[in-house]
Amino acid sequence: MFNIAIVNNDNRNESVYITTLKEKGCMLQQMDLKELTEEVSKIDAVLIPEGTAENIGQTCELIIKVRNITNCFIWVLSEETTKMNRIIHLQLGADGTFTNETDLEEFALYIMKTLERRSSITKSQGLNGLGKQSTEKKNRLIYA
Question: pTM score, two decimals?
């Protein structure tokens, strides 16, 4: 089960995409930035709903603030978007943008497989002693 935060300014969090992730066993929680900061260690990903392409300013602000809090995945759920907005999202640190035109099954598979891969990599690094601290120690030994 993955914990996904929904971060937006208008507290809208009902969409078929969010419902699909709940059906796949994900725990989705509406959070503001303060709550995200407090719960960041428990969060696997962040979804930022974007009403229309005109909301790009708010979305960009949220992407920047969330990226400053965490390095977890950030995906934008946009009702409508342009190529330029998707590029801006990526440049600011989002990992992708999904629109109403994205197939539900494709969306669910993309999110779940990405989170599963990150989870398995994190577990294998921990089990093999290749976590961040071990890697840093190894690098110091090699370059010392």
Answer: 0.82
Per-residue tokens: 143: 């370059």
Identify the three-state secondary structure at position 38.
helix
Q: How far is CA 12 from the centre of its chain?
A: 17
Alpha-carbon gap, residue 21 to 98, rounded angstroms: 13
Q: What is the dihedral of CA 9, 14, 20, 23, to 10 degrees?
A: 110
Residue 72 corresponds to which tokens in the numbers above? 């977890």
Distance separating alpha carbons of residues 72 and 135, to the nearest angstrom: 20
Single-letter code of the amino acid located at 24:
K
Residue 7, φ and ψ in degrees, nearest 5: -120, 120
Average pLDDT over residues 50-79: 92
